[in-house]
Amino acid sequence: MFRLLLAAAVLFTMGASALSSQSKKNIPYADLPIVQPKDKKDAMRDETLPAMKAPPGAVVAATSRLTFETLPLSGKGLLSAQVRESLRTLLRNAGSSTVVKLRAFVAGSGDVRRVQEIAAEVFGERRLNLPALTVVQVGALPLESAQVSLEATLESKRELNPNGLAFVAAQSGDSPASALKGITAILERSGLSAADAVRATCFVSMLDSRAGVPPLGEAKVVVVQMQREPVRPAATCEAVARLRAPVAEGVRVVSNEQGTPDAALVSAPRLAISGVQLGFGKQDSDIALALERIDRALVAEGSAWKQVVYSHAYVMSRSAADPLSRMLRERIGEARPFTILPFEGLSSIDAVMGIDVIAVAGQ
Predict the structure, then answer these.
(1) How far is the CA of 330 from the CAs of 56, 284, 327, in angstroms?
(2) Using CA atoms, how far apart are residues 303 and 277, in angstroms rounded to an integer?
(3) Strands, DSSP E only, in 174-220?
């Protein structure tokens, strides 16, 4: 009797085991171990990506210690690789200087939003503060396969511009060479020469590999094509130069015979340099929102619209230029040089304009 009961128990156990195995075959991953998170916070942390760090609205730096760098173009890799390599090269060469502003001209079909993401990554790797940032999509760059041209403004540890800086608004011509002659003429009216230039950027309707671009003093001239299709003007160039003597009142404007301001000579000790703020419509109310964001960034750094000495505006169509220029004059209240040019795009596909400024900061 005992043997019969033992045999029955063994048969029952084998049957239950077989049934369990059969059930597991019908359940995907039934043989894998189940690992529970330690708590709900751990589970949420695993599923949430860290937020991308936003660049500052504006950065304050000493006028006398500002220096300007242009990164060489590269045709290797796609946009992300080129931006990453350019930024790493910049930071290697910067030494003890601090990068306070980046302006990136992006060509090709790459996602321009990647510039901010990669800047946050590269500066974060080195535990450095992000600079103010302007990203503009352009029609083309001079080097085949190049997808980004980077300009950097840095604050050095030593005094480089003891008397201050001149910011020269874009001057137009039939070619970059003729536009640069216009820049030279303004520098000479300001008591300077081409030899005092430290930065020059030329924007052209169409790139012409046969037309060489002469240097402007010690400044290597950056050249970009504004849009994919031809636009007016044929060429226009802007520049920054060192002053030879300080301006007693802190800021002096140099105007042409028609009264149009061509340059701002600045000896004020500190400048607030903004990143771009985008506008999403051509109506006055749309433009006002972008200008108010600039105002908040300036106020946070002890400045304001009334202290702006130079403005850049990047528009997607000429129809946005007139209301924007009018509202810039109204905000600043005094005649100040500014540059408004058409470009291919900005860091948001919905944006129709972008604005960045340089202003005198609180002492």
Answers:
(1) 25, 12, 5
(2) 16
(3) 197-204
